[in-house]
Specification:
17 strands, single chain, 12% strand
Length: 705
């Protein structure tokens, strides 16, 4: 990456410490620092560290993270359970929470800088333009729904003196240590403090809150029974909706959230910059990325910036993502370099051999080579009619004899369904899979000549992309019927199409296909999954056309969404969907994601994506990159999008620091701090020349030096 992560780290620490150091002496029994977990790839499991516990609400089981059944929110609360709740910040999120608060029978007041009186009226909420008027209503709870960035200003300007002295303050921010420190500093000691984070929003919670996480810490709650009860009644609002209530310290939350929520939003924003669009051949993984973009696109950049700026663990996550992306690029380009190097050496050896043969044999060699090529395509056995003997779910006239070449994981995955439908399946592979084949009812051949002499109607290539050409060249075409149908299932389509035209005799039929699923995504059936095909070359003979359709019917019978498109069109769509999906999955695999006690829906999507892509070999991913002409462009676009997002973060951080420095300059004409902190000084000087909102990567690199 062209932007130095070190300079970003320095500036991030400078700003974070500026905002937090002066608050430390106000902390009451601060928690021990919680180390940022170094994630590792391992099977997903529920996390339940000893420091976490479930609050024992009536609808939640104690000491475990479970999915409680939601209580019907329309059931009216007893008057003793009613709360008067004042929502401060009545924007999108404030209105989202207010809707449920009102439905449960609580009295809701609202105040916001913008006039949301009409929205409040529709929801049954009393709106106050003046915070003094709202405070004089003496709400039991003040619910802060402002943005992280504006919270301190709002809180310091709030007329606290007009509230009851034991009022409960609650925040719902995505970062918790910042909120906790701020509330402890600004609020009088006799006010109660509850820090919470509902791990959902208007988009992810639009179908209800059941099963969603709600984290909380009772930072300061008085010993009186009424104050304890009030806090529990507020938390019960979320428990009644079926939320998973997780009690943990604010520092623990921030370390987990940096590895889940911030990473999720970062990936979502990078993909948003790529302007991903649905294609006719979406995979399940790509659909999940589209949903992720939809969920994060609705959030403001201020929210994302707040996740970065006010969580001291976020910068490490950004650095690790950066390193993971670089590691993946290095692995890709290293493999590419090795292939090119090998080709150069082999081509050199081949040229030397050809020169030696010409010197020894003269022109006879070329004539002999021509005759051999002619023999390969014409020296075939006499064709005969094949009548399948197996019985099954298809008519006898619809059964096929299919030879699977490459009987690894994917070949076995397809064979299972093909056999179940009653087709005769043969198999050949370099590795001995005879035991596996026998259990599946497949005839296994260790010799390709023996397999071809069985005259299969269809040869189904299930080899890896990298080995396909070598395998194809080694097959004894002369032992097959001259009208044999060749089918591939590779993830790229232009490459095998050219290979078939180059190496197959002209009287062989060609069908290029791509089942857009695999053993993991198709383990529960193929219904609704996409199957792409291109009838590249199929003879006009009715029998040959029927054979092609019968093969395609194998997938149609399973409920696949059959999509016919050219190989070139497939590769164009796949580079923007399948290659991007696998790239994100592999970056996150190298990053090292694992489940947390407070997973969001978006983070669950990324965990599932890693699980799906981690099962595929690097050869598959390298094939997607190497044999799709559009893949390099997509990799460059992804790199550019990640770079742009970092620039946006740095630009905002630069503007904030510049403002702080200039404000300080007005108070202190002489600035010895600049001598002690040349980084901050340079940021301020550059900001004066170039503007507060943007900082070029070249300037930041100068600052670092």
């Amino acid at each position: 990456m062209s932007i130095s992560m070190h300079s970003l780290s320095h500036a991030h620490s400078l700003h974070y410490n500026h905002n937090h150091n002066h608050n430390r002496h106000h902390l009451v029994s601060p928690p021990k620092p919680f180390p940022v977990p170094r994630f590792s790839i391992r099977p997903r499991k529920e996390c339940s560290p000893s420091s976490l516990r479930m609050q024992s609400f009536p609808v939640c089981s104690h000491n475990s993270v479970t999915k409680p059944e939601p209580i019907n929110p329309t059931t009216h609360l007893a008057p003793s359970h009613h709360l008067k709740i004042a929502v401060i910040g009545f924007g999108n999120y404030g209105q989202f929470l207010a809707k449920t608060l009102v439905s449960q029978g609580h009295t809701v007041l609202a105040h916001s800088r913008s006039d949301h009186s009409h929205a409040a009226q529709k929801l049954g909420v009393s709106f106050f333009a003046d915070p003094h008027d709202l405070c004089e209503e003496h709400p039991d709870v003040i619910l802060l729904c402002t943005s992280v960035i504006s919270t301190e200003q709002v809180l310091r300007s709030f007329p606290l003196q007009r509230l009851k002295r034991n009022t409960l303050f609650v925040d719902v921010f995505s970062v918790k240590e910042f909120a906790k420190n701020l509330l402890l500093e600004v609020l009088p000691n006799d006010f109660d403090i509850l820090c919470t984070h509902p791990m959902f929003g208007p988009q992810s919670g639009r179908q209800g809150w059941a099963g969603m996480y709600c984290m909380f810490e009772k930072v300061r709650v008085g010993n009186e029974e009424s104050r304890i009860s009030r806090c529990d009644k507020y938390l019960d609002i979320f428990a009644r909706e079926g939320c998973r209530m997780v009690e943990m310290s604010c520092s623990e939350h921030d370390s987990y959230a940096a590895g889940s929520q911030f990473v999720t939003h970062t990936v979502g924003r990078v993909l948003q910059m790529l302007e991903l669009e649905s294609t006719p051949i979406n995979t399940k993984g790509y659909e999940s990325l589209l949903n992720l973009v939809e969920n994060t696109a609705g959030d403001s950049f201020d929210l994302y910036y707040g996740l970065f700026m006010y969580n001291k663990s976020a910068l490490e996550m950004l650095e690790r993502l950066d390193l993971a992306f670089e590691a993946l690029r290095t692995q890709l380009f290293g493999s590419l370099h090795e292939v090119v190097r090998k080709q150069l050496f082999e081509n050199g050896k081949a040229r030397r051999r050809q020169r030696s043969l010409r010197e020894t044999n003269g022109n006879g060699s070329a004539a002999g080579q021509t005759s051999m090529i002619h023999m390969r395509s014409k020296d075939v056995l006499q064709p005969h009619e094949y009548i399948p003997q197996a019985s099954g779910s298809v008519d006898a006239s619809s059964k096929l004899k299919i030879a699977i070449v490459g009987f690894g994981n994917f070949g076995q995955f397809l064979a299972k369904t093909i056999v179940r439908q009653g087709h005769t399946v043969l198999a050949y592979s370099r590795t001995d899979y005879s035991d596996v084949a026998r259990k599946m009812g497949v005839s296994y051949f260790s010799d390709a000549d023996d397999l071809c002499e069985e005259h299969p109607e269809v040869v189904l290539l299930c080899t890896s992309i990298l080995s396909t050409e070598k395998v194809l060249k080694s097959l004894p075409f002369q032992r097959l019927k001259r009208s044999t149908l060749f089918v591939d299932v590779l993830s790229v389509k232009e490459f095998p199409r050219k290979l078939f035209f180059q190496h197959l005799p002209p009287d062989f039929d060609i069908l290029c296909t791509h089942p857009m699923f695999g053993p993991e995504s198709g383990k529960n059936g193929w219904s609704g999954l996409t199957f792409v095909f291109d009838r590249v070359r199929v003879g006009y003979n009715e029998a040959r056309r029927s054979r092609c359709n019968r093969f395609l019917d194998i997938f149609a019978r399973e409920g696949c969404q059959m999509v016919e498109m050219s190989c070139a069109e497939h590769d164009w769509h796949a580079a923007g969907s399948q290659f991007i999906t696998h790239t994100i999955g592999r970056i996150l695999e190298k990053f090292g994601l694992e489940s947390t006690p407070i997973n969001t829906k978006g983070y669950e999507t990324l965990l599932k994506l890693v699980e799906n892509t981690a099962g595929d070999s690097f050869d598959l991913y390298y094939g997607l990159f190497m044999y799709n002409a559009n893949a390099m462009e997509q990799l460059e676009r992804l790199d550019f999008a990640f770079e742009s997002l970092k620039k946006q973060l740095i630009g905002r951080l630069h503007g904030v620091l510049r403002k702080q420095l200039f404000d300080h300059e007005q108070k202190l004409p002489e600035l010895p701090l600049w001598k002690e902190n040349p980084v901050a000084a340079k940021l301020s000087q550059n900001g004066a020349q170039n503007g507060a909102a943007h900082a070029s990567s070249s300037e930041l690199l100068k600052i670092q030096n």
